[in-house]
Amino acid sequence: MISTSDIKKGLCIKYSNDIYKIIEFLHVKPGKGPAFVRTKLKSVSTGKVIDNTFPAGHKIDDVRVENRKYQYLYNDGETYHFMNTDDYNQIEVNVSNIEGNKFLKEGFMVTIIINTENSEILSVEMPQNVILEVVSSEPGVKGNTATNATKPAILETGVEINVPLFINEGDKVKVDTDKGDYIERIK
Description:
By secondary structure, the chain is mainly beta. The chain folds into 3 domains: about 1-60, SH3 type barrels (Roll), CATH 2.30.30; about 65-125, CATH 2.40.50.140; about 130-185, CATH 2.40.50.140. Helices cover about 0% and strands about 55% of the residues. It contains no helices and 16 strands. It has strands spanning about 1-5, 10-15, 20-30, 35-45, 50-55, 60, 65-75, 80-85, 90-95, 110-115, 120-125, 130-135, 150-155, 160-165, 170-175, 180-185. The strands form 3 sheets. The chain has a 6-stranded antiparallel β-sheet with strand order 1-6-2-3-4-5, with no helix packed on it. It has a 5-stranded antiparallel β-sheet with strand order 9-8-7-10-11, with no helix packed on it. β10 and β11 (about 120-125) form a beta hairpin. The radius of gyration is 21 Å and the shape is flat.
């Protein structure tokens, strides 16, 4: 059991018969009334994000988890295969436990969160951003750059994102895996 004063980003807790990861929190001490902690919780099983407010001093059940680095190998439909680069053990993860899997490419390193109590895989976290090659994109129209004009481009993993007009086929781009947005071109 932990108190609301121990809340930090990335902490996993048991709440409403599910395991949630704290993605945002804010300690609030209003002028009137008791203090409280406003949190944004993300379910590790469903990925659903909820807002919740805990009163100050409230006791919370924490979940002990381990973050391990794994390398993505391949997928066969609904199952994704990963390898621990330290001991070369391989594990299988269901697609429902992977967020941002549309940006997953063979060889990428991911963080897998494992419940230490029962060795259950809670979730697979993608890196904050990834570098992928543009495989299909229409050429940009010269002179059409007065505004932040974008065009659709298909990346090597098959996902389509909007990129600036100067991006061509064969260019490598950095993509934010949370929002799916273009960040910059990589030379």
